[in-house]
Amino acid sequence: MVPHADSPHDSGLSAPESTRGSIPPAADTPLDLQTKENTASDETPIESDRSAGEEAEFKEGGYGWVVVVSVLLVNAHTWGLNSAYAVFLAYYLRSGAVAGASPLGFAFVGGLSISIALLVSPLVTWCIGRFGTAFALRVGVVLEAGSFIGASFSTHIWHLLLSQGVCFGLGLGFCFTATVGVVPQWFTKRRSFANAVATCGSGFGGLTYSLATNAMISNLGLAWAFRILAILAFVVNGACSLIVRDRNKAVGAVHIAFHKDLFKLTEFWLFLGWGFFSLLSYVIVVFSLPDYAQQVGFTASQGSLAGALFNLSQGIGRPIIGFVSDRLGRINVAALGTLIAGLAAFFLWIFAGPHFGGLVVYALFGMFAGIIWPCVAPVGAEVVGLQLLPAALSIYWLVLVLPATFSEVIALSLRSTGVAGYINVQVFTGTMYIASFLSLWLLRSWKLQQLELLGLNDQQIADYRPGSVRSYLRGMLTVRRV
């Protein structure tokens, strides 16, 4: 463990350990709060019962790979199933199966499933600290299965809003928040790769269930499609809840539902900006591709195939992203991937999308469209440190509620009729990705400023003035592994 250095911040929160030189990317030391003696305030009860013996015996990986596989399966049967809503949405918009529904109503169902999942994160964070990770995960398992059973009996839009929207969102939120911070606790050198392998489950799950859901609706009907998905989710996620183990006590994880002191950090605001703008675009792409395909003249099966290929790209691409991140820098890869997603929306989706071959090529860029998911935990650890990562992510998901709720509503509002009816949606999507990239590239400049401090003596550190416009611009043009 590298000794804890003093920080130049005046906000009372010191920079995370991961910013201090050629330290392993793991930020295993807590972000100090209010004092430099690691003394926690009343509302930041940092656990001090870390077992030195347990840390000495800990080896990277080991049982951690079992945890990775378990989280992969949970992601496949939560986020992967949520991606299948694109197939449900295309069916709802054209079948008239739900009484009293409008396109905006269906958009809110999909948006709620994500926004509720993010909104409940502070409650789940509190539950993890009080009752443990396994308890929170099992609550999510029951809620998710119940949501699909309820949706199978839905005949009106408000039924879907409560079941496939609110209840599924609660189940997704409990499962996701309970598992998102577990994998990084088991790894240091391979943290990004392991985290990316776990998150690729949502891509493979989305691939599987985008195709399977379309087939089940066509052959068995909407109701039985929901019931089969409920059984699968309950069995797989329930089994994983018996296997997943965390290391919260060993790393001194801080499970605070709303850690307001984090808002004093400029870098945390940039971290939030990256997620806010990125999610605005990502939700639109996930939910709109099958409908877009049918609007420009392709069949429902072709639209389902486009959505499946988008998820396949994420499933294959996320481990690659994680592997490269560990070598080229977590912030570097996350930023460049976000930029590529924006450029793909402008130059592939707009110009090549009306041709099925072009749409397939754009769908294969899904690994960059959803780059926030394999990168958010490793990048967050670089910003706030590993111990405060659960508290930081609790706020992070809460901030993302707005884009999750309204992104698809915005998309359907911008959509018009005809082959070119999606042009406004496409431009909006690309613009939001570019804004997300700029937020993360500025965060990269902050990181470089922190690394500069390592070569300064005490007097130079006292005279150092971080955060100037000139220093940020210089950092944006600096080539370095970050």
From TrEMBL:
Top-level taxon of the source organism: Eukaryota
Compartments (UniProt record): Membrane
InterPro entries referenced in this protein's UniProt entry, alphabetically: MFS, MFS_dom, MFS_trans_sf, Proton-linked_MCT
Any coiled-coil regions, as ranges: none
Principal cellular location given in the protein's record: membrane
Transmembrane portions of the chain: 65-93, 105-128, 135-154, 160-181, 193-212, 224-244, 265-286, 333-353, 359-381, 393-414, 420-443
Major facilitator superfamily (MFS) profile domain span: 266-482
Protein name in UniProt: MFS general substrate transporter
